[in-house]
Amino acid sequence: MKDSTRVVAVVVAAVAQIVGSPLGTAISGRSVGDVSDGARSLVTPAGWAFSIWGLIFLGSLAWAVYQALPAQRTRSVHRRTGWPLAAAFAGNAVWETVYPLGGAWQYVAQVVIFGITAAAAVGFARLQDLDARGEVAGLARVLPAATAGLLLGWVTVAPVANVGNTGVALGIDPDTTSSQVWAVIAMVAVAAIGAFVVLASRVAAGPFAAAVVWGTVAIAAAGGPLPVTVAALGAAAVVLVSLGVRTAAPQVSARTLLVG
Predict the structure, then answer these.
(1) CA 190 to chain centre
(2) Domain ranges in the chain?
């Protein structure tokens, strides 16, 4: 019964996050992109960066179907990661619905996006423990490992962008020196967190790093001030170097680390 409940929760949450964006647009009359573009900060990525959600949604849905197969329901990898990743997917659905509403809902969206990051981090961390026991193999290595890596990597960058947008929406001027300083500090924080996660990983560090690099390069490509651009590119470089160092480490499976 517990396995069935978890399986259903994952499927429902994976579908809900796909429905969340059009639902939010229908309720508010504007999309997430409209709100983001209307309050661009120094750490708002270029618009093309958000296409990564399509890949995350596809991976999430594929894993939801896979873990629902009768032969997969009782596997440790699905039992250990199911609830935290279902929570992350459900959080995405909520965020996509409330963020376009603006106003006080900006604060709700802020809390939700950090909750999504926390849930994704729990699922990702559990995958590392499972790999240490040899329980992440086959399609379970790609689904949910690669999907969890992509999701966590993106939501390592997304909260920074969300905070920046919220600040601008509340009246903070992005053209001031202090705004540039805070943007640079944010990029340093992303670099530090990204490097730590990569160096501590055994599974799916590749997808995680790819998503972080995608997000930080998109911030650099958005055409902000030079210090922010340099900091964003520097964050991407730090994460890539960390991945190279981790891949070269002894007793680490490069395939598992890079693919999932």
Answers:
(1) 12
(2) 2-259
Which residue type, as a one-letter code, is found at position 158? A
Peptide bond into 207 cis (omega under 30): no
Please choose, from the candidates 44, 35, 13, the residue with its C-alpha nearest in 3D space to the C-alpha of residue 119: 13
123 Cβ contact partners less than 8 Å away, ≥ 6 residues apart: 81, 84, 85, 88, 144, 148, 152
Instruction: List per-residue pLDDT tens for the chain, 260 residues long.
Output: 678 999 999 999 999 999 988 888 888 888 777 777 777 888 999 989 989 999 999 999 999 999 999 988 888 889 889 999 999 999 999 999 998 887 778 888 889 999 999 999 999 999 887 765 666 667 776 788 889 999 999 999 998 988 888 777 777 777 888 889 999 999 999 999 999 999 999 888 999 999 999 999 999 999 889 999 999 999 999 999 999 999 888 777 777 777 76
Is the pTM higher than 0.70? The answer reads yes
Contact 78, 67 (CB under 8 A): yes
**Cα–Cα distance for residue pair 141/128, rounded to 1 Å:** 11
Distance CA 214, CA 45 (A): 9
> Residue 251: left (phi > 0), alpha (psi -120 to 50), or beta?
left
Residue 82 amino acid letter? G
